[in-house]
Specification:
This protein has helices at 37-41, 96-102, 113-123, 137-146, 156-159, 185-193, 207-212, 231-240, 251-259, 347-362, and strands spanning 2-7, 12-19, 23-31, 49-53, 57-58, 77-79, 82-83, 106-109, 126-131, 165-166, 174-180, 196-202, 217-220, 246-249, 264-280, 286-297, 307-313, 319-324, 329-332. The protein has 367 residues and is of the alpha/beta class. The chain has two domains: 2-146, Glucose Oxidase, domain 1; 156-362, Class I glutamine amidotransferase (GATase) domain (Rossmann fold, 3-Layer(aba) Sandwich). The chain is globular, with a radius of gyration of 20 Å.
Length: 367
């Protein structure tokens, strides 16, 4: 069946449908990863977006239940050059097309993904519509232009857990509360590897309710959309800053920056992929990182007397990491739980453990 991808600037891409049928709206972005499409599709940070894969052949190793990163896929659509109908891997349980259809996600293949990617790089990420039911170009472009987009939209409320749950029930040296703004499961797995008891709470959980759990540390997770639109999470950070160790990842990094007086802005086409070089300013070590964000903290709006810049993106010199000079709080823009290096940035979880241990040692009556 024919599928059409229409961009708000009038560009049209026609291809073949795979997965679900219907019509979906979202900001079209490109991801430069060569593999890991299942993890990408199930990353809640892609809520509100249509993903274009730059690698030409997608789907050849199928889908399995072990590699999912959330309770369901949240992406609005999936765009590839060539979809492999044959899944050849001993771990495969179904094809990518079957998985998309089961989860009501539209896919389109057979378009010039290289041309689409170059267009996004030149013109920027933009609103789009993916449809199998409307082939009228003018109609589709109008629909794309009238869609909601991402700026000022709270998408966290659409992906966050509705109620508290315990990821690891066993007692451990450190009790960590994860504020779920769209958390990837591998973040929880990494905390478990580091001998943490993990409790996940909804994004709208207030500071005093978090303190009642008596955690040793807080992790503010990744998530979708505009960080300035989730002011309630920013307020939670403000109320907890200095009272308990904090680790922010991706959206959590941006939220921590907003809580400390910084400002965010929208990147031209965002950082989406598994090959982004990031420099550790203390060691000068370069890590190859996985990233997925369309907004960024403005490095010039941060108070350098209170905040130390720890990591910089080597592609465009944007802010990738910071820590507070007085309070036990730090964050990174990239995903240390993904580690395509393959383990370049997993040490950050160890730093979080050390931060909690130091805080416990300083205060015997620590909450």
């Amino acid at each position: 069946m024919t599928a059409v991808l229409a961009l708000e600037d009038g560009r049209i891409f026609r291809g073949r449908s795979f997965g679900a049928l219907g019509e979906r709206f979202g900001e079209v972005v490109f991801n430069t990863s060569m593999s890991g499409y299942q993890e990408i599709i199930t990353d809640p940070s892609y809520k509100g977006q249509i993903i274009t894969m730059t690698y030409p052949l997608i789907g050849n190793y199928g889908v399995n239940k072990e590699d999912i990163e959330s309770r369901c896929p949240f992406t609005e659509g999936f765009v590839v050059k060539e979809y492999s109908k044959i899944a050849s891997n001993w771990r495969a349980e179904k094809t990518l097309g079957e998985y998309l259809k089961e989860n009501d996600i539209l896919g389109i293949e057979g378009i010039d993904t290289r041309g689409l990617t170059l267009h996004i790089r030149r013109a920027g990420a933009m609103k789009a519509v993916l449809s199998t039911q409307d082939e009228d170009e003018k109609s589709l472009v109008t629909k794309a232009r009238n869609s909601r987009g991402l700026i000022g939209i709270d998408l966290v409320k659409e992906v966050s857990t509705r109620k508290k749950y315990i990821w690891s029930p066993q007692k451990a040296s450190h009790k960590v509360v994860v504020i779920d703004c769209g958390v990837k499961y591998n973040i929880l797995r990494e905390l478990l590897k580091n001998h943490c008891q993990v409790i996940v709470v909804p994004a709208k959980t207030e500071a005093e309710d978090i303190l009642k759990i008596k955690p040793h540390g807080l992790l503010f997770s990744n998530g979708p959309g505009d960080p300035a639109a989730v002011s309630y999470v920013v307020e939670t950070v403000r109320n907890l800053l200095g009272r308990i160790p904090i680790f922010g990842i991706c959206l959590g990094h941006q939220i921590l920056g907003l809580a400390m007086g910084g400002k965010t802005y929208k990147l031209k086409f965002g950082h989406h992929g598994a090959n982004h070089p990031v420099k550790d300013m203390k060691t000068n070590k370069i890590s190859i990182t996985s990233q997925n964000h369309g907004f960024c903290l403005d490095i010039d709006t941060l108070n350098k007397k209170e905040i130390e810049i720890t990591h910089i993106n080597l592609n465009d010199r944007t802010l990738e990491g910071m820590k507070h000079k007085k309070f036990p709080a730090f964050s990174v823009q990239f995903h240390p739980e993904a580690s395509p290096g393959p383990h370049d940035s997993s040490y950050l979880f160890g730093e979080f453990i050390d931060l909690m241990q130091k805080s416990k040692s300083k205060n015997k009556n620590y909450i």
